[in-house]
Amino acid sequence: MKMGMKWQLQCFFLLGTVLITFFIICWDARRDGTFYLQKALQTDVTHLKMRQEHRRHITRELCLANSSLNFTEKLITFDKIPNKALDHLIVDDRHGVIYCFVPKVACTNWKRIMIVLSQNLKAPDGAPYLDPLDIPSKVVHNSTVHKTFNKLWRRFGRYSRPLLHHKLKNYTKFLFVRDPFVRLISGFRDKFVKPDEYFYNMYGSTMLQRYANISKPPDSVQEAFAAGIRLSFTHFIKYLLDPQTEKEKPFNEHWQQIYRLCHPCQIEYDFVGKLETLDEDTEHLLNILGLDNYIHFPPGYKKRTAVDWERDWFANISVADRRKLYHLYETDFRLFEYDKPEALLHE
Q1: 178-214 pLDDT per residue, tens
Q2: d(CA 298, CA 301)
Q3: Does a structural domain hold residue 123?
Q4: The domain containing residue 165 runs over which residues?
Q5: pTM (predicted TM-score)
């Protein structure tokens, strides 16, 4: 009997030793895992901070008077920018944020975010929108729902400039950019590959007349599509390169150069995001703004225009025209550090 009890005690002691050892090992593993996770997160945040500093440094350096990049608008002061050219700067006074929106660079969803932040727009139930995805896209692009620098000028007149300077100094300013050639392809797909009555009437019919030798294009985009008449990417590029185009009216915002929409040499942005790193940059920016637990960026589109489509889209564009197009958008390529598309320019 005593031998049996002794054997049981030894078993219990051995089992207890094993359990305690296992617990210690698990605790150490968990502690080490937490440590390495924290280190990984710290490394990631450091990387994102360095990325932002690098992007902003490149822009600042190229905006200097003696840099290798020269363009007409480079050396003008902020006060010399026409008020109409400030209508892409959306202001949220509640959170101290200024966003310069660039069409075809996730601007629909960022405009949704700005509407939610400002709480200026009410949902059908009378309450402010809280979920960005609840805001219809047609509403998002209605200029009347956004408070812009241009509207501040219209409201305060000559007193607006000191107010704008105050906001630029104290608010967090950000924009998102994209490879310039890919942005052009995306804009063309969105406005001319799909039937868009407004863009057909404002631009498409003119392009067909001038570059497709169609003297009398159909009156509507539906009629044109039904007759098999469609604008080609080649016609679109010819339109952009034609000196007559901007003599008649400024570029539409969907193909206007980013530097002319957002004035990065006059406005020192705190954050420069890129569509190519949209998820990481968005998460980082929302964290900087202290909004990462309050608001979630809507998911991106699966049919986003890809960089590796460039060769196919430019197949029918002459090398000479590709080089002219690069020259037209070179400032965007260099200010936002996009690689020069050497393969396209030297085939």
Answers
A1: 999 999 999 999 999 999 999 999 999 999 999 999 9
A2: 9
A3: yes
A4: 72-344
A5: 0.85
